[in-house]
Design a protein that fits this description.
The chain is mostly helical. It is built from nine helices and two strands, in the order ααααααββααα. The chain has helices at about 1-25, 25-50, 55-75, 90-95, 105-130, 145-165, 180-200, 205-235, 250-270, and strands at about 170, 175-180. The chain starts with a helix and ends with a helix.
Length: about 270
């Protein structure tokens, strides 16, 4: 019960901070994304350091901040879209980071540094495209992002409750022993219901879109969660960090979102826009 209360309180504060930053302005969302990306990258590199790798922690975080800043400023029309091509500069710069790494660790350490940026910063840098696009009239409107987050949180809660009550058939026992197929399908039902309900209060997407997105979110989110479980198992750690009592680290909390956002982006820009 104490663990449940701890998780609930931490989760409540987390949701309030997230929604507050998203609703206030695009700038508060930007600050939130910078904080999430910095902490998540630090946790990611820390897991590989435990395994003996030597990623350029601050180089990767710095490159990530540059990428996120360029994308945000482009969405806010402070810079022209053609300048997004300059995002190759920090990526290429990381390739030359080998001069700061011991010779026997060059290849794997550079690759870990780069994969952290791709795994974490690529999805987070797509979030501004969900809040400002042709559907929103290119003005800031977090309706889609909030819907995605509500569905994610509902799926997580629904899967947890369904798994505790009915879970008997393990989904991937060698990766995540607590996940069950009952929890997966129970969470999916809750997610679709919330997607349908949310469609009644929004205008950018219709009910069919939200049903499809709910299914995409469940499938991609579960895969993203299992992938991070593999990373933690390889590193020999239970959680990516301890910043969120009862939940672990920031990467633990956003592992599903990192795979969900690219698929939501693809759906919007290939199907709807």
């Amino acid at each position: 019960m104490n663990e449940f209360l701890k998780r609930s309180l931490t989760g409540g504060v987390f949701i309030i901070v997230m929604l507050g930053a998203i609703l206030i302005s695009p700038w508060t969302l930007f600050i939130l994304l910078l904080a999430i990306s910095g902490i998540a990258l630090f946790e990611y590199y820390r897991m590989f350091q435990i395994r003996g790798y030597s990623p350029l922690v601050y180089g990767g975080i710095g490159a990530g901040f540059i990428i996120l800043s360029f994308v945000f400023l482009e969405r806010q029309s402070y810079i022209h879209g053609k300048y997004l091509e300059l995002l190759m500069v920090p990526i290429v710069g990381l390739w030359f980071s080998f001069i700061f790494i011991k010779r026997e660790e060059i290849i794997r350490s550079v690759m870990v540094t780069l994969t952290g940026v791709i795994y974490i910063l690529l999805p987070l840098s797509l979030i501004p495209f969900l809040t400002q696009n042709e559907l929103t009239g290119n003005s800031y409107n977090p309706e889609i992002l909030i819907g995605v987050l509500l569905i994610i949180w509902t799926y997580d809660s629904g899967a947890y409750i369904s798994g505790v009550l009915f879970g008997k058939h393990k989904m991937a026992p060698s990766i995540s022993p607590k996940k069950s197929w009952e929890g997966f399908f129970g969470g999916m039902i809750f997610a679709i219901l919330v997607g349908i309900l949310y469609s009644k209060f929004t205008s950018l997407l219709n009910i069919q879109d939200w049903i499809i997105l709910s299914i995409i979110i469940v499938l991609a989110g579960t895969t993203g969660d299992l992938f991070e479980s593999i990373l933690k198992r390889e590193a020999g750690v239970k959680d990516s960090g301890k910043i969120m009592p009862g939940h672990g680290g920031i990467l633990d909390r956003f592992d599903s979102l990192l795979l969900i956002v690219p698929f939501v982006f693809l759906y919007l820009y290939l199907i709807k826009i």
